[in-house]
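Annotators were shown the component list below and the corresponding predicted structure, then asked to write short factual statements about the assembly.
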Amino acid sequence: MPEKTMRDAINEALHQAMEQDESVFVIGEDVAGCNGSAGDVGSVGGVFGVTTGIYNRWPDRCVDTPISESAIVGAAAGAALVGMRPVAEIMFADFIGVCMDQIVNQMAKFRYMFGGKSRCPAVIRFSAGGGFSAAGQHSQAMYQVMTSFPGIKVVVPSNAYDAKGLLLSAIQDDDPVLFFEPKVLYQETAEVPDEMYTIPFGQANFVREGDDVTVVAFGQMVPKAAAAIDALAAEGVSCDLIDPRTTSPLDENAILESVQATGRLVVVDEAPPRCGLTADIAGLAADRAFSSLKAPIKQVCAPHSPTPFSPELEAAYLPDADKITAAIKATLA
Amino acid sequence: MSIPKETLLHAYRTMKTIREFEERVNAEIMNGQIPGFTHLYTGQEANAVGVCAHLDESDTIISTHRGHGHCIAKGADVSGMMKELFGSSEGLCKGKGGSMHVADIDKGILGANGIVAGGPPISVGSALAAKIRKNGKVAVSFSGDGSVNQGTCFEAMNMAVVLQVPAVFVIENNYYSEHTHIDYAVGCDDLKARTEAFGFPVFVADGADFFAVHEAAGKAIAHAREGNGPAGVFAEQGRYHGHFVGDPQAYRGEGELENLRENHDPLKVFREHMAASGDLTEAELDAIDAEVMAEIEQSVMDAKAAARPTPEQVTADVYIQYGATA
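Structure shown to annotators:
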């Protein structure tokens, strides 16, 4: 099976979805690029190159916009309400700060407030997360915030294979979907089939299987957790590593069944702790698997701080394999 | 412009329906029968009806928190709306939306909207869909004089020009953003010029006069429908009621409301036009009045008798499908 980067896997999914369904279109800042300039239109393909080549094949369905995140999300929502399947790109998840209303008050609520008589099959893609020395306004995960809003689905792939299958599911989904792409993973490779395939939402992936500790990790924390777990195998510790892949819907059963089997839980996310996914999963286990627990639940996450710029500071800020290892060991102490 | 008699009859009936709907809703709120926050459109009927006269079902509108008039003008079922305002599960939105979220996608009504200037970006999306599909449809967004100060409105207007989509921005100046006058809240002296500076034509109308709005909206909608990019309509007309039902309206000047009702009543203005032109007789208009009154009375009786939602409906319709096995 061919190896592809996550960037190329997502790009391939977009091309295939565009080819298969005329109602799919791409919209965002520089998704084509160079409009109105001396350069060749279409030669940018998004700042991370994820929409490369789409304009060249479908110029009418690759819509460059001004820097207007509210209008981008609104346009996607409005087009979806009348039957299109837009895939909008918001360059950085942090920019949710300027289009929050269109996501949470508009697209998330149409179906409910309209009595179930509408559908809004829009996908909004974001680059997300830290690890780029991009500082406080270009490094946030944000998916943990958006998970708290009913009416939208939230996807966080951790590898190229999942990214392609999850994005194709997102585009086919009749509900609005937020798709968070951990930007440090864009160049990471995995085996990715050339053909179209989908991965259902709400179905966690068991990245590793073991008996001693359940580790739940999200997005870019999944490979870090896998590295920690693989190193611990030499010490005779075996772990389940669960990648939920979608935080809404969340595969609660996979987590609970694993915790019931291992009796120990470590939850890992790159976002700060308050009202985050680690607390959410810890709460789930405390509420519904308390009697199985043999040790306190451990949360590994960023501190309650903005993301710092300097590489040394960011390395200290983000969870890494060492911190995950220490947490796993603490549950076994 | 010569308007067919059938259109005139429909226009008057729709304006009268909006008027009676709103006045009755006001009364039922005062009686404690309708819960929540409600914003009435009374006095501005000619705007909604003059604009929507140019639209068919597959053109879209998106409305505001003051949305009943727009929805009725675009063909929403009045009885279903009344039931919705009463919170019935038989309401247009099953009691999930209420006054601020009346919608009927099948009729091209993308919803009233509780967020000021929430609608224009969404309307640009509907217009973009029309452009991609090349189907000749237009997307109308209604905004007030308050809405046009929101960044989302600016973004939508600029993007509509950049993308050259058939979006029509209808700006209804009722002089007040909530409790603050346009002279304070709009920093420039000429809102029409400010809007046109985005790069599309804006057609001005007296918002009390159906015929003026109809003509201005006709030009704007034709401009958009013919592929010339967005256009605007700017109509001035005060609202008769407060920002919300129960607003003591401390901002009104002496005699302001009396003057509005006496000299700027779209229904009276319409009747005056008819008396002058002879296109419709007083008897014809009186007959419509009687029919509308009966229809609204019936809608209230039906709403009071309609089924109430039950607790298990709380979580219905959040998603179409949720989870791997749903």
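Statements collected:
1. The longest strand of chain A covers residues 85-92.
2. Chain A touches chain B through 50 residues (CB under 8 Å).
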